[in-house]
Amino acid sequence: MLIDSHAHLDSPRYEGDRAEMLKRAMEAGVGTVLSIGVGENATEMHQARDLCREFNGQPGMPRLYASAGIYPHNTDEADAAALAKLDGLLAEPEVIACGEIGLDYYHKGADRETQRKGLIAQLEIAAARKRPILIHCRDKDGAFEAWNDLFHTLDQHWRRTGLCGVMHCFGAEWEQARRSLDLGFLISFAGNLTYPKAQGLRDVAAQVPQDGLLVETDAPWLAPMPNRGKRNEPAMVTETARVLAGLLGKTEEEIGQATTKNFERLFGLKAGVGN
Q1: pTM (2 decimals)?
Q2: Which helix (H) or strand (E) holds 23?
Q3: What is the edge-to-edge ordering of all strands in the sheet holding 63-68?
Q4: Can you tell me the distance from the alpha carbon of 244 to that of 160, in angstroms, rounded to the nearest whole number?
Q5: With pLDDT > 90 as the criterion, what percentage of the chain qualifies?
Q6: Whole-angstrom Cα distance, residue 54 to residue 89?
Q7: Which of 49, 67, 150, 228 is the most buried (most CB within 10 A)?
C-alpha cells in the first residue's frame, strides 16, 4: 500500500465526487492520505480536519489525516485570530502537521517580509504543539533566494526544536535536497517527477536515500504522466511511485513499504491501511 503524503482534498474541484475519488484511491492501493489544511484562505484551514471526521470509518476509504497552516501567499491574514485558530487545530488528534507553510517568491501574494514573519509565527506554534512542518518553497527565474531565506529561517527558528518535517513537492537541486536532509526533513516528490523535461529532478531523486523519501500528488494539481493536465487525485500517486522505484532500482512494493515507514516514523503513528 502507498501513502499520498500531500493532497488538497478540500478543493472545490472535488465537490461532485469526493467520496468516489477517495474510493478510487483505496482501489489503487493508496491506504492513507494526508489532507492539507490551507484552504483558499486562512479562514478555511479547518476543512481538512472536517474531511477526516466525515470520511474516516467509512468502508472502502483510505485513512485520512490532516494538516493546518497558512499558505505563504496568505500570510497577510496571519493575525492573532488566525494564529489562535491554527494553534487550536494543531491540538486536534486528526491534525498531525503544520502546513503547508514556507516561502513563495514565484507567485503574487504577500510580500517577502510578511511571508517570513508569518512563517516564523507558525514555526513557533508548531514547535509548541510538537508538530512536524510541511514546507512549500518556490523560487523565481532559477534563483535560490527563497531557498536561502528558508534555510536561514529554519536554522534560526526550527533546528533547535529537534522536530522535523517534509519538503513538499520538491523541485530544486541536490544542494537544497542535501541541506533539507541534514535538517532531518523528508523529501517528497510529486507528479512533476514524471514529466519529460524533469530529468534534473529525477537526477536529484536518484540520490536521495530511501529513508528520506515520500511520495505525494499535491492533488488536484500536477497530475503525473500520462494524465498531465487533468485533475489529479490520490489514486495517481502510484505513477509517481512507479517512476521513483525505477530511478532507485527498487520495486513499487519496496517504495510503498519504505515511504509508508518514513511517514509513520515522521509523524509518530501507525498509518495503517484503510479504516
Answers
A1: 0.96
A2: helix 18-27
A3: 2-7, 30-35, 63-68, 95-104, 133-138, 165-167, 186-189, 213-215
A4: 32
A5: 95
A6: 16
A7: 67
